[in-house]
Write a structure and sequence with these properties.
This protein is α/β, with parallel strands linked by helices. The chain folds into two domains: 236 residues, P-loop containing nucleotide triphosphate hydrolases (Rossmann fold, 3-Layer(aba) Sandwich); 154 residues, Coagulation Factor XIII, Chain A, domain 1 (Distorted Sandwich). Helix content is 24%, strand content 34%. It has eight helices and 19 strands. The strands form four sheets. The chain has a six-stranded mixed beta sheet, sandwiched between helices. Strands 10, 13, 15, 16, 18 and 19 form a six-stranded mixed beta sheet that branches. Strand 18 and strand 19 form a beta hairpin. Helix 4 crosses helix 5. The chain is globular and about 75 Å long. It starts with a strand and ends in a 19-residue tail after the last strand.
């Protein structure tokens, strides 16, 4: 990788002024700071970044952390309030979906317009045009107005134009999340080629797997400040802990600060939902059911240690959970499901098809259950759902307490493979 510096961001701040009434903006411009009519919002505060030729840097952070603002300042579409920004070479940027496109122009006309804005001559554009058309895969849609495009077609055109503008610096703001999975894979292959050719790449994504697989360095932004920068895996760990630990702490405080079960014991207090106390708890869980019985706590252990956020591929984990009965129930079913972030179920079992547990519970009783899982999964984020249902002849089962995607788990491995299952395949030449 070349040591040539292409982007330097030094102590950059971006502050917005908010006014309660439009007239206040006029008064402020006339009388200056004598009148305090605005409220300040700091989108960025003291952020620094360096990007060298042939380097890929990823930026992660919660919504509203300043990621897009930083990219817009580097791209030159937004002016910083203070600090210094230095860029060298041609910048090609995919910011907001469809930004820079005239909806009444055809795809071809928009591609030509973008090329002229970036300084390409007519001859250079026509030289690149076959590559743009081929990569986008839009065919005859290149001659139709982009207002007729789907979001995926927008991305195809925008990415095809951006990568063929001979950039020194390529900036991508979450645009690839809209495209289909095959096109995403095609884009990442091209990004690898561009990186090897010396293009500096800066991109924002919520895909932690992409950060680890494709980036040389990563930066975590939090409320406008750079919270951590360095090795992608270390930054991703910090990001995941920030995302999910903070939810646990906030919800635990609202529940009265119940015991965190550091000694490995499930909480059996039926008056408190102890699930949010665990770092693996997902506050965005989907919960429903008639609540005649409730899942009041859970715990995941690997060996003798509680799993806080992540574990290794192939590890055996023990999932324990407690259920309290507000009513006497029979014909009970207890279920566990493991899913990907997009909702694909990769494993599921329940006590009706695979279990040796009591099928009834008495009013006021609290029962404990466990399920052993072997995580033969490749690196990625996974969600575990727990459920209690009642067998029913007409409806198959009636939901009592279903807590979908309640547990978030990060699986890590060093395998150079792709997909979901860790099948440990090896290709050998046979003589």
């Amino acid at each position: 990788m070349s040591s040539e510096l292409l982007v330097s961001v030094d102590n950059v701040c971006k502050t917005y002024q908010g006014y309660r009434k439009p007239i206040h903006r006029l008064w402020q411009s006339l009388f200056g700071n004598k009148l305090k009519l605005s409220d300040e919002f700091k989108a960025l505060e003291g952020v620094g970044l360096k990007l060298h030729r042939g380097e890929t840097v990823g930026i992660v952070g919660k919504n509203g952390s300043g990621k897009s603002t930083l990219l817009q300042i580097i791209a030159g579409t937004l002016q910083e309030t203070s600090g210094e920004v230095y860029t060298k070479g041609r910048i090609s940027a995919l910011l907001e979906l469809g930004a820079g496109f005239n909806p009444e122009f055809t795809g071809m006309e928009n591609a030509r317009l973008n090329a002229s804005i970036l300084g390409l001559s007519r001859e250079e554009f026509h030289e690149k045009l076959p590559d743009i058309v081929e990569f986008s895969g839009l065919g005859e849609f290149m001659h139709r107005p982009v207002r007729t495009y789907s979001s995926g077609m927008y991305v195809r055109l925008a990415f095809a134009v951006a990568i063929n503008m001979q950039p020194d610096i390529l900036i991508i703001d979450e645009a690839l999340a809209v495209g289909d999975i095959r096109f995403q894979r095609k884009c990442f292959r091209r990004l690898e080629e561009m990186k090897n050719q010396g293009v500096a790449i800066l991109f924002v994504t919520h895909s932690t797997e992409s950060i680890i697989n494709y980036c040389d360095r990563a930066i975590l932004l939090d409320e406008g400040e750079a919270r951590k920068s360095g090795e992608p895996k270390d930054v991703v760990h910090e990001y995941l802990e920030m995302m999910f630990s903070s939810d646990s702490v906030d919800l635990a405080n609202r529940n009265g600060g119940v015991d965190k079960n550091d000694e490995g014991q499930l909480s059996l207090d039926p008056t408190v939902d102890a699930c949010p106390n665990h770092p693996t708890y997902n506050a965005a869980e989907h919960r429903w059911g008639d609540r005649r019985a409730e899942i009041i706590d859970y715990q995941i252990t690997c060996g003798d240690e509680a799993v806080r956020h992540r574990c290794s591929s192939g590890a055996s984990v023990l999932l324990r959970f407690a259920v309290h009965f507000h009513s006497g129930l029979d014909r009970l079913i207890y279920g566990v499901t493991v899913k990907t972030p997009d909702g694909t179920a990769i494993y599921g079992t329940n006590s009706r098809i695979n279990g040796k547990v009591s099928s009834s519970g008495k009013q006021g009783e609290t029962l404990q259950f466990q399920c052993k899982l072997k995580l033969n999964l490749l690196a990625g984020d996974y969600f575990i759902s727990l459920g209690v249902a009642q067998d029913d002849n007409d409806k198959d089962n009636v939901a009592i307490d279903r807590r979908y995607d309640m547990i978030h788990l990060r699986v890590e491995d060093n395998q150079t493979a792709f997909g979901l299952a860790a099948l440990n395949g090896e290709i050998k030449e046979v003589q």
